[in-house]
Design brief:
32% strand, single chain, 2 domains, 30% helix, 6 helices, Aminopeptidase, 11 strands, 11-stranded mixed beta sheet, alpha+beta
Length: 241
């Protein structure tokens, strides 16, 4: 979803032109930073007109970084539970009803279904309405689908698309996202099929890892564990207040 990756040596900043949210504008960290490094990150975010956000694995290794950020008026804004496929046999139910998005017309259908899967006041949806994210989803498909770096899929019930998913292929990692089903078909296995089809496709593409990120304590987190994923680590986004 990033339009640009900015490598500062001690961090890589992901930047989205279309989606200003901290989910798609953050600095990936894997070490304790000094004050000057944090200052450089903040200055770069200021130039990008984005809130300074640092994203890192939440663990003992970076406890000192967490304490330092809290002293600098940063607060935890979001937390992701990273889950990885455990190599179990893949249930292929509904696979023959799944179609990859290959045209601009199909893309518009995908975005419409995707938007309808993520509505407010939905107990199974902790993310709310998609808003500007739809613009980013359209742009990133146009930019990367020819190279097969990103793939969009729709699951059909009869002739109607009822579920969607996305697979991103990058450096041996298959990242699964944007999974959703229309409310009227939930419980019928379409969301499961959309997810597992991405796992199957990721394996065929030669990826070594097949993963996704959710929020602990919410329905999607439990759902993915039930169908074959397991928690490996938690990552947090610390945002300058």
């Amino acid at each position: 979803m990033y339009d640009e990756l900015i490598d500062l040596g001690f961090t890589v900043i992901g930047y989205s032109k279309t989606d200003p949210s901290t989910f798609w504008n953050n600095a990936l960290i894997n070490q304790v930073l000094n004050d000057e490094e944090i200052k450089q990150i903040e200055e770069r975010f200021k130039l990008l007109d984005r809130r300074p956000t640092l994203y890192f694995e939440h663990g003992i290794k970076l406890k000192e970084l967490t304490e330092k950020l809290e002293l600098k008026q940063y607060k935890k804004g979001f937390e992701d539970c990273w889950q990885f496929w455990q190599g179990k046999e893949i249930d292929q139910t509904h696979f023959n009803s799944i179609k990859k998005v290959t045209t601009s017309e199909e893309l518009e259908t995908f975005l419409e279904v995707f938007n309808n899967c993520y509505q407010k006041d939905d107990p199974q949806n902790p993310y709310g309405e998609l808003g500007d994210y739809l613009k980013a989803a359209r742009n990133v498909w146009n930019k990367h689908h020819v190279a097969n770096r990103i793939e969009y899929f729709m699951v059909y019930k009869d002739s109607k698309p009822v579920s969607v998913s996305t697979l991103t292929n990058y450096k041996g990692i298959g990242y699964i996202s944007n999974v959703g089903s229309l409310r009227e078909v939930r419980g019928q296995g379409f969301g499961k099929a959309a997810t597992l089809y991405c796992v199957s496709k990721s394996i065929k593409n030669g990826n070594i890892e097949h993963c996704l990120a959710t929020e602990e304590g919410h329905y999607p987190n439990v759902f993915y564990q039930k169908i074959g994923f397991a928690r490996r680590f938690v990552a947090v986004g610390y945002i300058k207040t």
